[in-house]
Specification:
With 118 residues, this protein is mainly alpha-helical. 57% of the residues lie in helices and 5% in strands. It starts with a strand and ends in a 23-residue tail after the last helix. Mean pLDDT is 80; it is low at 101-112.
């Protein structure tokens, strides 16, 4: 059975969501480097990317802060939850607590690699 302390799990989730926020922000720049020349529906779609990035960033900070205020003796079983994760690298990062990274953001070593799932 795979277990983790709740603080470690929350910190890991915070880093994962933070990495998604960073990726979403990069998508925003890629999709709309000059939104002023686009129609209203396009601008609205780009704004939804910005909203998603801000939400992910807020959730990342929230979970990271929550993890700092939870007792280290609180542990949870991850086995059933890990069985639902289909991305191998993500499953590994969730199962193995990571050392804290500078600003709390985890950038996967496999950026750019594509994983196909069935």
């Amino acid at each position: 059975m795979t277990t983790s302390t709740l603080p470690d799990l929350l910190k890991t989730l915070s880093r994962e969501i933070g990495a998604l926020a960073d990726t979403t922000e990069a998508l925003h720049e890629l999709v709309c480097h000059d939104c002023s020349i686009r129609d209203a529906s396009y601008v609205q779609a780009v704004q939804s990317i910005d909203r998603a990035q801000q939400t992910l960033d807020n959730l990342s900070v929230f979970l990271g802060t929550l993890g700092e205020h939870v007792s280290d003796d609180c542990a949870v079983s991850l086995t059933a939850a890990l069985d639902t994760v289909r991305l191998t690298e993500l499953k590994h990062r969730l199962a193995v607590p990571q050392a804290s990274e500078g600003a709390g953001r985890l950038i996967p070593a496999t950026v750019g690699e594509m994983e196909l799932f069935s």
